Structure formats: structure tokens, C-alpha cells
Amino acid sequence: MSRPSSLTKTAIIVAVFAIAVGVRFFNYQNRIIFGPEQAMSLLISGQMLEKPSLLGQPYFRTTSRGHQLFTAPFFNYSLVPLMLLFKYRPMPITVFFTLLNLLTGLTLYHLTKKVFNFWTALFSSILFLFSSFMVGHSLFIWSLNWLPLLGLLVLFGLYRFYQTRSTQYSLYLGFLSGLILGLEYFYLLTLILVVGILLYYSKSKIKNAFYYLLGSIFAGMPMILFDLKHYFYHTRSVWQYFMDTLANPGQGHITYYHFLHFWPLLAILGGNILTRLWSKKRFLPVVTIIFLYMFLNLDLQPKLPAGVSLADWESAASVIADQRPENFNVASLLDFDTRAHQLRYFLKYYFHLEPEVYDNYNRISALYVLAPEEANLSPVNYELNSFYPYKVQKLSTNESGYSVYKLIK
């Protein structure tokens, strides 16, 4: 194994992170994603400023009994200070999640270097930082974007517990696991694995199990308090959803983002393989693999929902705000989100105008719709059908080819 000087190591890792920063921030304004889920997250977090809540945001899924599932409030709590600090602007809030992803890569490098060596840490961080999934996730606000960092800390916590057998790591692991479970229920499978490893290497199984449970309770305290006040509504809803999934496995829709907490582990495994090749002086294959990996994962093209940028949404909201409307609602004909959550966010926090609630599309004076230019404005969905019949006025068309329409009686 070659042994570069400390200065060379520093130069290499600085160069890697500089490239990772450049890949993420290149054409940043036009690449960040502000879709309906991002707008909903900010709207719900904004509501917490008006009325604090023990629950986070709702899932799109409901149980067979019509009960809504919710995340733990940790993610929305983390958004509140960002919204206040950045005056509700989505772009700098998104920058926080970009930096969070880079911080995860830096933490991965630091911890892997402690456990293994410089080369394993370097290769692992490269595999993590230049994964197209990680680059993509660093460009939008989302609760699950916390999972890679939390998963990495769980992994290191297990390693430290194995070394020390200290109960403080049981408490630490319980707290982290509680946070992750509150964000992603599929983590339950990993949680069982973590508990199994913890107990297997424990000198005092009961004591460590107690501390792990205590840490989990601390992390899940808001939802526990909610359940105690509401006859275990959320626990019963999660159980019902679990039973529904057993009865109808297809509704679970398991996909990669349910396992984002494993991304650092996969990077470390890949880093170890590359280090073994490097130690056998197979420099050319390793360098080739890394460059091919970075090249194949490099995609700097915008991947915007329905092709609509953050600036497009803000511009459309500005057009509506210029009308100074009262008793109005908004809709969109761009994707599945026909309720136009992005418009609602900008209107409320930029222009201090609040559309009517989601189910009131018939008792209003005007309906503003963002749609492609020359779109068919016939009553094709619930929102337009509820307001029908109506007259259509085109207010503006932006450079991206999207128009704001005003529908009136």
C-alpha cells in the first residue's frame, strides 16, 4: 500500500469534496426540486409556528379504515428554524439539505478513516458523494434525506458498542433508531437487526435493552404523548396498515428510499473492495473504476417535476398576487398535484394571501390555474369540475411555456 504524505492526503480529499460541491451547486437554481411534497412539508412546518403539533406531516397512504398515517415531527421541527432564518425562501432551505448530504460524506470519510485507513475512507466517500442517488437527494427538501447521516451514526454506534460494551451506546443507538423509525416505518426491519446485534454482544442484556428502549422513547416522545392523549390513535393506525399490507402485499410499494440508511454501509463495502485492489498495486483498474463510476453517475441536467422550476412557481404566484384576489382558490394541470401546493406556499408566505381550503372549489369567486400554454381548461379534474361552469382568462405566459389562467363565473 502506497503511503502519501499528509499534505498529499489533504490535497486529495479537498479536491474530492470540491468536485462534489461543484456537482451539486452547478446551475443550482434551475436544478433544485420544489415539488408538491416539498411545498407540503414547508406548509405543515409553517403551521407549527401558528399551532405547535406533536405529529409531523401525513403520509399519502391511509389504512383500510380511512385513518391517516403520520411521520414523527422531528423533520418538521428541523424546518421551522430554517424557515424563520431564511424568511421562508425555499432555495436557502434546500441549500441546508445539500450541505447535509455533503456533511454526511465528510462524516463518512472521518469515521471510516478512524476504523480503517485513508484509502478506504477516500474510496468510500467518493462512492457516496458521487452516487447519482445522493446527488439527486441533495437537491430537494425531504424527510428521508436525514436517513444516510442517521444510518451512518447507527453503524458507527454499533462499532463503538462492540469495542466498549458501554451502555451509553445502547442509549445512543436507541435514540437514533427512534428518530429514524419516526421518519421511515420500514426501518423496523433494520431496528430488529440492530437490537439483535446489540443483545448478542451485550454483557448485560437486560440493562442494555432497557437503555436502548429509553433512548427510543426519548426520540419518539412527541408521538408517544400524542398517542397517550388520543387513545393510541397512531399506534392503532400503524398496526392496521401493517395488517392491510399483509392482506394486500402490493400496497407496500417497497423501493430504494426505504433503505437510504444503508447507503453509507454500501459505500464502505465498496471502498473496502477498492482498497484491496489498490493494496495489490492494481492502480489502473481502481482509477478506471472510479472515473467510470463518476462519469456514469454525473448528470447535471435539471430533473424538475413537470419541468417547472422554483422561479416558475414564484412567478406564477406573483401574477396571482397582483390581482389581489379575495375568496379564491388555486389549482394546477401539471402533474398529480392538482391542488397546487407550491402556489399555496408562495402566496401565503411571500404575498400574505391564503387560498381557500382544499375542499372548497365551488364557493369561491375565482379559481387560478397554472397549466401548460394552450392547455385544455375543460373540467378534467375535481378542482375544475367543482367550479364549473366558468369563463377562462389567460393572465400571463412565462418563458418556460406555462400560463396562469383565471377562471370566473
Automatic annotation (TrEMBL):
Keyword Cytoplasm annotated: no
Q: Which UniProt keywords apply?
A: Membrane, Transmembrane, Transmembrane helix
Source superkingdom: Bacteria
Q: Which residues cross the membrane?
A: 6-26, 92-109, 116-134, 140-159, 171-198, 210-233, 254-277, 283-300
Per the record, the coiled-coil ranges are none
In its UniProt entry, the species of origin is given as Candidatus Amesbacteria bacterium RIFCSPLOWO2_01_FULL_47_33
Q: What is this protein called?
A: Glycosyltransferase RgtA/B/C/D-like domain-containing protein
Tagged with keyword Heme: no
